[in-house]
Design brief:
By secondary structure, the chain is mainly α. It is 53% helix and 10% strand. Strands 1-2-3 form a 3-stranded antiparallel β-sheet.
Length: 228
């Protein structure tokens, strides 16, 4: 005898419905491709409703000034009205995929090897090998937030364009430039996730993702980025 599902008793509340997103292939990414092509490939892999929200957002650009005067252009992106909990689910999933794979920080071993190789092209006279190794460790620590492909791209750019030994600040600037489009997308996804959750919840359980929710809010609140 087949058991029949029990109906909801009169006056009782219906069980909550959890929406499951269909599985799909990982986000496509070719670090050797131009930034514009990488952005198009990532956008094309996102669900259509999420692409629609991204295309409907409001962008405000304005000049930024620092101690030395003009310091580039900042961009602030705001999601459109009507972002739903389902949009938040899709944005959160894409954000997790993006930051967990494409934007995942490089391993310490990769960083140290890359930095030592770069510095070997610009040997410092009178610096003992053990001191040079300590310098490389400092560099690896200061570049530790960037993905391996961005560090590789920054080192390649410096080798091909500069004659002198770089500073850590210069390498950080090149790393930021290399992965700026991907981080811009991550911040927009975080803004959508926060906006959709605030609009009425997404049914995922508020008590299980405080760390991720805090990260999303931090990124959404800091959605101002230098535009190269």
């Amino acid at each position: 005898m087949t058991a029949q599902p029990r109906s909801t008793p009169p006056g009782g509340s219906s069980p909550s419905v959890v929406t499951h997103l269909p599985s799909r292939p990982p986000l496509p990414f070719d670090p050797a491709a131009p930034a514009h092509e990488r952005g198009l490939a990532l956008a094309a892999a996102l669900p259509v409703p999420l692409r629609t929200v991204l295309a409907s957002g409001r962008v405000e650009r304005r000049p930024r000034f620092g101690d030395r005067g003009f310091d580039g252009v900042t961009e602030e992106w705001t999601p459109p009205d009507g972002v739903s909990g389902q949009h938040a689910l899709m944005a959160r999933r894409a954000f997790d995929e993006l930051t967990g794979s494409i934007l995942a920080p490089a391993s310490p071993d990769h960083l140290l090897a890359r930095v030592l190789a770069l510095l070997s092209h610009y040997p410092a006279k009178g610096t003992a090998p053990e001191v040079e190794h300590l310098v490389a460790l400092d560099w690896a620590e200061d570049l530790g937030e960037f993905p391996a492909w961005a560090v590789d791209a920054a080192a390649r750019t410096w080798r091909r364009t500069q004659k002198w030994r770089p500073s850590i600040a210069e390498m950080r600037a090149l790393c930021e430039e290399a992965c700026a489009p991907e981080w811009a997308l991550a911040r927009r996804l975080s803004s959508i996730a926060v906006a959709g959750s605030a609009s009425g919840g997404d049914g995922t359980g508020e008590g299980t993702g405080h760390g991720r929710a805090g990260r999303l809010r931090a990124l959404a609140g800091g959605a101002v980025r230098r535009m190269g």
